[in-house]
Amino acid sequence: MTSLDDLKRKILSNPEAKAEYDALLKAELESLKADTPELMDLPMDSPEVKEWVERVLVIKNKLNN
């Protein structure tokens, strides 16, 4: 049985699939950026801000790999 990591590697080894994956990540990143004004009134240590920051960092890391 193929693991999810193996499947992900197979998909991302295809240039067209990688481009589509990157486009989806970029779209999610833009969506998250649109949420920034709502977060400005929250403390930096609020769960919402921490979750937002972590997701942004995960996406940027995936885009840089």
Could you characterize what this model shows?
With 65 residues, this protein is mostly helical. Helix content is 78%, strand content 0%. The longest helix is centred in the middle third of the chain and has 20 residues, at 15-34. It is elongated and about 40 Å long. The mean pLDDT is 87.
Major sheet characteristics:
none
Helix content: over 70%
Radius of gyration: 15 Å
Oligomer: single chain
Give the helices and strands as they follow along the chain.
HHHH
Gross geometry? elongated
Determine the N-to-C terminus distance: 26 Å
- The pLDDT mean sits at 87
Strand residue percentage:
under 5%
SS content category:
mainly alpha
Please report the number of helical segments. 4
Q: Low-confidence stretches at least 5 residues in length (pLDDT < 50)?
A: none
- Tell me the total number of β-strands: 0
List keywords for this structure.
mainly alpha; single chain; 4 helices; 65 residues
TL;DR?
By secondary structure, the chain is mainly α. It has four helices and no strands.
Task: Chart the SSEs and their pairings.
Blueprint lengths: L3 H9 L2 H20 L1 H4 L7 H18 L1
Helix pairs in contact: 2-4
